[in-house]
Amino acid sequence: MDFQINNILVGFDNSKSAKIALEKAADTAKRFDAKLHALYVFQEGKADPTEIQQAVLEVGNRLDIDIEFVMRTGKVYNEISISERELGADMVIIGTHGSSGWQPFWIGSNAFRVASAANCPVITILETTKSEALTDILLPLDNEETTRQKVPYAAMMAKAYGATVHIYSVTKGTDKTVQSKLNAYGRQTEKYLHERGIQTTYKTQFGGEVPNNILEYSKEIRAGLVMIMADTESKSFIMGSYAQDIVNNSKAPVMVMHSRDLALTGAVGY
Q1: Of 69, 70, 71, 47, whose CA–CA distance to 58 is shortest?
Q2: Does residue 117 belong to any structural domain of this protein?
Q3: pLDDT for residue 83 is more than 80
Q4: Between β-strands 164-171 and 225-229, what pairing exists: parallel, antiparallel or unpaired?
Q5: Are residues 214 and 97 part of one domain?
Q6: Residue 268 — pLDDT band, cuts 50, 70, 90?
Q7: Alpha-carbon distance 103 to 22, whole Å?
Q8: How many CB atoms are closer than 10 A to CB 91?
Q9: Which CATH number fits the domain that encloses residue 89?
Q10: What interhelical angle do 176-194 and 151-161 show, nearest 10?
C-alpha cells in the first residue's frame, strides 16, 4: 500500500523552531504536491496574528509555495488536534522548544499530547535541529508487533526524498528469542523496501539503553529523519518513555506515528 500526502498542517509562532518546521513542511509539501496549512494558536500576551500571518506570507513567497494561514484561540494541543481533523491533515509538523513560543512546557506534555492524540504522523523539530539533508532515514525496530506499522511511511518518505533507509533492530535485552524475532522483522523490512526500489542498510544492537543507542546511531549516519511509534514500549495512549526521550533529545527531526493510525490498517502485508 502506498500513501499520498495531500494536506500538511504545521504549527507556526515565528519562533526559531517554528521557522525550521515551516521550511521543512514547505519542502515536504512540494515533494508530495500537498496543500500546506500554517496554524497559529493565539493566546493573550503572544504575538499579534497580523505579524505571524505576514511572516508566513514572506516564507511562502521566498519558497514559492502557497501557504494557507489558520488562526485559532485556545490550548495549543487541543487546537492542533482539532485542526488536524477538520483539515483532514495527513501529516502534522511542529517545532518544539522549552522556554518561548507556544508555551513554557511545550517540549513536554504539549508535544507529547499532540503526538499521542494524532491520527496521522507528527514530525517534531527542535530549535537545535541540525539541517541535515533528508538523504538518510533511521528506522528503529523493536520487538513490539506495532513496530512494523511505520515501515510503509518510511517507504513513502524514502521515495519522496530519494533517501536510504537505515533499518536498526534494537532492544535493551539480550534474550536469544527476542534477537531472533528482531532479526526476522529486520529482514522482512529489508525485503519490503527493496521490492519498492529503496536502498537500505541493516544493523542490530542488543543491550544498552535503547533511546541512547538510537540517538547515537542517528548522529553516526547523519540522519535527516528518525521514525518512531508513539506507543513504543507502552500499552497506553500516552507516548511511551522511549519515544519521549528521543523527541526531547534528537538533533534530527522525529516522525512519531501511532498504532491506531487508520491509514496503516492492513498496510504491512508481511
Answers
A1: 69
A2: yes
A3: yes
A4: unpaired
A5: no
A6: low
A7: 18
A8: 26
A9: 3.40.50.620
A10: 40
